[in-house]
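#struct-help
A.M.: can someone run this one for me? Single chain, 465 residues.
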Amino acid sequence: MSWSSDSDSRQIYAPAVSTGGFFYRGRSFYVGVDGFQHGRADPADLHALLTYTPPPPVLTKAGKVAKRQPVNTHKEKEAHFYCAQLLHYGLKPLKTREPAKKKLLAAFEASGGKTLAVPPQILELEKTLKEQWKAANSMAKKKFIEEEKTRALEAEKRSKQKKALQEADMKKFLEGTSQPIAGTSGDPFELGEESDNSVEIIEVPKSMTKPQLRNAITTLSEDRLRAILTKLLDDVPAVQKILKNEIDNTMKSSKSVAKSAPKGKKTATKTNSLDVSGSYDILAPALSDNWACASGPMTLKINPSSTSAHLWGKFDFGIISGVIRTEGPPPSAANVRVSFRWRGREAGEDVMTFGECNKGTMTFLADGKIKGYLEGDLCTSEFVGRPSGKGKTGLSVKEVQKWKREWRSINEVGYEKENRGRWNSGWGGDHNSVEGPAASDTTEGGGEEDLYGEESYNSEPDFAF
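D.P.: on it. Structure tokens below:
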């Protein structure tokens, strides 16, 4: 077979070029016969094939043919191979094997032995086809690179557009201007257009009952409530008197508490931690864009442990669900990023997932909402959350204890037990798969248990909204 040493020809972008049954592509010059491709065989190898004679049988000492004979490794070539060699060496092709072999052998004998020259016109044809293919391949390579750049730019553009849409969705979700997720409480109202003085008007559906309206009020942020009260004060004269009485009563109550405090001591509001406990509706566009099971309601419940050494959480993000555990105590102020680890199960086969890669961060905002980032083997996504309207309803120490038990049961031992049971390979052993509690979960002053031997994870991406 004839080969080129050009390094550029190793990268193939163009199809073969051909003339009269001869082809060139890459670094090979070959002939096509009946759908088969054959390069030019070396004269010495071709002569050996043509003159091959099977060895005589092995005889015993008695001169008889032995029962066990060595394996003959010689493999005869097909007729199309010999037909192709006739063309390579400038001879008239024959379609059957034996006549083709005889014609080739006669050509060897005519040339004086074991050599066979390639006609100049065949060598010239090979050179011409090689140059044609190199030119075609160069053009095809240039086109491929240009198209690859275009594809990369288009992919980057689509990625940026998708990212922008996801960020817009999260921004609307936090602002409460997006539709509630099906199956969650969400915001039971839509925001109207802003008035001239930039105060947002809330349009309450006519069908809402008084209890429903009370429940809706619990979902509003302090800023939203102040805006509503200001609007009512401006538009409804009767509200002025009601607000004045309420503010007077509040101020009198505050003064009374201050006077009753012992001298030399001042009453102070407890500010060592931020109250972030409660239920949240969650939006994680990167998950819902890729998994249908993540398009439904996503939820997160947060509550501190009894010692306030950690925040614990129970989440359901559709494709993944489980328990989170912060690496430190609850934040003492808003807009402080806290790191967490998580353990959970994948949707579908309910397989456990845990380990060093399951981590994330959360930032509790001043208006009671959340921005966060969760990553693991299965998925990585930013997420945002807003109070679901349920407040602290249903959250208790007992519920946190359930989360802790779930956390401690998701580990290597538990995974192996379930895996063996899943594949019917027997019991996974008598080892207890439930871990003991961390020191910081059981004592007031206990140190933080280092679950993975790492520093706190703090790589949440910056949000663009």
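A.M.: thanks! Residues 96 and 439 are 86 Å apart (CA to CA).
D.P.: also worth noting: The domain at 278-442 is CATH 2.40.128 (Lipocalin).
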